[in-house]
Amino acid sequence: MKIIELKLGKRSYQIKTGFGVIKNLGREIRRLNLGTDAFIVTNNRIKLRYAKNLLKPLKESGINYIFKTVADSEKSKSLTSCLRVIQELARFDQKRKVFIIAFGGGVIGDLSGFISAIYKRGVPYIQIPTTLLACVDSSIGGKTGVDLKFGKNLVGAFYQPRLVMSELSFLKSLSSRQVRAGLAEIIKYAIIKDKKLFVYLEKNYPKIINLQKRALEHVVNRCAQIKSGIIQRDETEEKGLRTILNFGHTLGHAIEAAGNYQKYNHGEGIALGMVLAGQISKELGLISENVRSRIENLIKSAGLPVFIKGLSLKKIIEAYYRDKKFIGEINRLVLIRDIGKTVIKQNVPLNIIKDSLASRLNL
Ligand SMILES: NC(=O)c1ccc[n+]([C@@H]2O[C@H](COP(=O)([O-])OP(=O)(O)OC[C@H]3O[C@@H](n4cnc5c(N)ncnc54)[C@H](O)[C@@H]3O)[C@@H](O)[C@H]2O)c1
Ligand SMILES: [Zn+2]
């Protein structure tokens, strides 16, 4: 097991990663004095497979629990489902000391975290991520929220969990497409902050795809460390440091949105976004062709897309303009000057962005 301390004064918490960490769930809840009654938010797929792994440690520590399942879809990140869950929570909470367990991927993590933030002006919650993407990204850092029809994550709060338990044995049932989506975020961490991790991934990416124990533990822990380091210095994205986590995300989101979130999942969208950010960095003379092609090669080897299929330039550009990261007329892109070194560029000429997109379209 590996432990990371995310230090945020009174809001500090641990991230525990490994195979078998879940066995200590009850003890951890007692140690943190979270309460006596666990309201576990999950979906049926995860509940059917893994509920038993939570029940044993909870029962052993004498903790009451109830499961609340939501639909297995991004649609669960909505105000409607939020209200439904809160009403059940209020019913369960009568005369109890309740806390919440977010047991699932990023959808469940974001929804449950948001409910924890607003119910009674804040109740404690734990993240138990069950996707690779959630282990390395969404479970850490306290960004919670739901979507509106006008866009994703428009309603939300910064609200830190009290503990993150990444039980890596839960990942074995993920589809290989979902594993690769998580790997895209892992590649992102390497590109923005850790050249050594990048070199490790160049050699060892098949081990991650095959969920090999030691490689997985190493990489998930390293990414959690990188993200924690950034959150510690810029918890609420005020200093601009947290922005680097958006590497590949501005154009990636536009591609996801242009495909109505059906054609490309988040990891695939940002894989394309990272290829494009590499290309734009090269166009602006920030990196060499060698660095650019190493990034593309790793993404391609990981089985992620490097060409955009079945979307028009017009649709992507429209989605790009709708993105909330676009401040007025000024665009802002996270680019790189080497692997492991980011640079934020404002006012990148639109023709450079368009040309890079056009060169990646494969209709
Ligand atoms: N809060 C943040 O900082 C942050 C960061 C990145 C992404 N996100 C959000 O996370 C969401 C995406 O998260 P995601 O990729 O985990 O998607 P997800 O939660 O939709 O999970 C993907 C799929 O995997 C299934 N699944 C989950 N665990 C499984 C398991 N162990 N075995 C088999 N199937 C399993 C789910 O039921 C779902 O069908 C998006 O809404 C995104 O906005 C948030
Ligand atoms: Zn992401």
Characterization of this structure:
- The protein is an alpha/beta fold.
- The chain folds into two domains: 2-173, Rossmann fold (3-Layer(aba) Sandwich), CATH 3.40.50; 176-362, Dehydroquinate synthase-like, alpha domain (Up-down Bundle), CATH 1.20.1090.
- 48% of the residues lie in helices and 20% in strands.
- The chain has 13 helices and 13 strands.
- The strands form four sheets. It has a seven-stranded mixed sheet, with helices on both faces. The chain has a two-stranded antiparallel ribbon with strand order 7-8. It has a two-stranded parallel sheet with strand order 10-13.
- Helix 5 packs parallel to helix 6.
- 47% of the residues are buried.
- The structure holds nicotinamide-adenine-dinucleotide and zinc ion.
- Zinc ion (ZN) is lined by residues 137, 185, 249, 266, 270.
In short:
The protein is α/β, with parallel strands linked by helices and 363 residues long.
Helix and strand sequence: EEHEHEHEHEHEEEHHHHHHEHEEHE
CATH topology of the largest domain: Dehydroquinate synthase-like, alpha domain
Spans where pLDDT lies below 50 across 5 or more residues = none
How many helices does DSSP assign?
13
Q: N- to C-terminal separation? A: 46 Å
Fraction in helix: 40-55%
Give me the CATH superfamily of the largest domain. Answer: Dehydroquinate synthase-like - alpha domain
Please tell me the total number of domains.
Answer: 2
SS elements, strand count: 13
Task: Give a quick set of tags describing it.
363 residues; alpha/beta; Rossmann fold; Dehydroquinate synthase-like, alpha domain; 2 domains; seven-stranded mixed sheet; two-stranded antiparallel sheet; 13 strands; binds nicotinamide-adenine-dinucleotide; binds zinc ion
